[in-house]
Amino acid sequence: MTRQPVRSFRSRDWFADPARSDMTALYLERFMNYGLTADELRSGKPIIGIAQTGSDLSPCNRIHLDLAKRVREGIIAAGGVPMEFPTVPIFENCRRPTAALDRNLSYLALTETLYGYPIDAVVLTTGCDKTTPAGIMAACTVDIPAIVLSGGPMLDGWHEGELVGSGTVIWRSRRKLAAGEIDEEEFLRRATDSAPSAGHCNTMGTASTMNSVAEALGLSLPGCAMIPAPYRERGQMAFLTGKRIVDMAYEDLRPSRILTRESFVNAIRTVTAIGGSSNAQPHLIAMARHAGIELSTADFATEGYDLPLLADVQPAGRFLGERFHRAGGVPAVLTELAAAGKLHGECLTVTGQTIAENIAGRTARDREVIRPYDKPLKEQAGFLVMTGNLFDAAIMKTSVISPAFRERYLSQPGREGVFEARAIVFDGSDDYHHRINDPSLNIDEDCILVIRGAGPIGWPGSAEVVNMQPPDHLIQRGIMALPTLGDGRQSGTSDSPSILNASPESAAGGGLAWLRTGDMIRVDLNKGTCDALVDDAEIARRRTEPGPEVPPSHTPWEELYREKTGQLGEGGVLEFALKYRGVAAVTPRH
Ligand code: FES
Ligand code: MG
């Protein structure tokens, strides 16, 4: 007897609709021109999409061009028909003015593909930062069975006997360059050595964070996130993922059955424990909102702040992805959270089992890299959520606050966690680069560097620019970091304890628009406040003046993006799109 799906496969409506045999012939004929047979497509097997994010333009995900072969073999072995198709390329480092424009674009395009073609279930190939949230957001809107396959990080990078990690080595070498300790050639050698193989960033940047998040959400097979791209286990994971998605198609195991408020809380806690990227804030909120689950910036404070840092991985720690994987990876971190009562173990996952069942017996194998919950690297290591007269919400990633920064700014006797600093305000990153070394600004260690015009509307897209480094003369004196603040984002690989993702942004009428160089800013980490010490009458007066100029849109998508996208504090999503959920329940008309 042939296996029966819980719910009839939607592809039947294309390939086996007895009422429209004319259309069926049309739908079938062109798939056969590369060797598929009509029988295969009409046999009642599920059609499994492979959303291919790898390309020459997306080198972080390029491993998926090879892995897809194993995914296909898994799909066929389990009785499905694979159909691979491309997605909009997303490459964090190279896309100008920012890859942030691509998350929502890729989301839109993938949603249309999954809805409009005869696809019953999908493998989301992920890697580079935004490829993970884009895929999950689309899977939530369409709501067909979906499974995440990470391409995996690169191998650990080594340079002259030292670990050099993606991105993090760039920020650190940039400071060394400014201090005159290295030259440009050495800079490039370090960068090259940090990228020794196929794969995405080997630090706990946004890519590894988001793949870990997918695993914590229950959307990938256990252990999937951190297997390095070149490891043999990666190909095996691809095969198993392909096999499993066929069963999920039969079981009708859709994102709406897996994702819950509790699974997102698990993800927030995982981000703290791994020292994950500050970009997890907008991406998690975006995925939750597309899944119809309430999640806000405040949840990062209530659910995530008070947890410890367990993974000793750059930029918050020392090691890189390959060693973290060998230490046990995400399942070992989840095991620590579970043992401390900080994991909702009952959450369902793509395996059809709970997350607690998935991680049974997967304890850490290297305690130098993954600490026990009660002997962490840092206590209270989550994102601080801040508010004040300059913005409604911003976050600060506390796990990257260095001892030197803590000593200088947060350890004044009697007022620990509080500092005041003179604002130096930059309008976008060009302005910063032109003026940061301008002696007339008199930048000293009592300044806070502020950047505005870097949010979703201002940039447009929201740029990773808030981790501004101090002027060269301070770096040469050994001052490697000043406080920074901005309405943009920063790379997940950065070790800067910036106050960032400020919402609303300056271009949307946020308080940063009226801030001026020379204003004093008071930051209180105990209260979670950040205020310009400017009186209300003066603020009101400044608000009547025109704000900073917003550059024009240069492409149709930039214009549309600006019109439809909300603020980072709400996930930076296409707000109108949220009302579309579970759209695959209605098969498109012929
Ligand atoms: Fe693509 Fe980091 S730049 S993963
Ligand atoms: Mg990034």
Walk me through what this model shows.
The chain is of the alpha/beta class and about 600 residues long. It is about 35% helix and about 10% strand. The longest helix has 20 residues, at about 230-250. Helix 19 links the parallel strand 9 (about 420-425) and strand 10. It starts with 11 loop residues before the first helix and ends in a 26-residue tail after the last helix. The mean pLDDT is about 95. It is built from 22 helices and 14 strands. It has 3 domains: about 45-155 and about 200-360, no CATH class; about 155-195, no CATH class; about 385-545, IlvD/EDD C-terminal domain-like (Glucose Oxidase, domain 1, 3-Layer(bba) Sandwich). The strands form 4 sheets. It has a 5-stranded mixed beta sheet with strand order 11-10-9-13-14. A 4-stranded parallel beta sheet has the order 2-1-3-4, sandwiched between helices. A 3-stranded antiparallel beta sheet has the order 7-8-12, with helices on one face. Helix 12 crosses helix 14 (about 295-305). The structure holds FE2/S2 (inorganic) cluster and magnesium ion. The site of FE2/S2 (inorganic) cluster has 10 residues, from loops. FE2/S2 (inorganic) cluster binds near residues 166, 200 and 205.
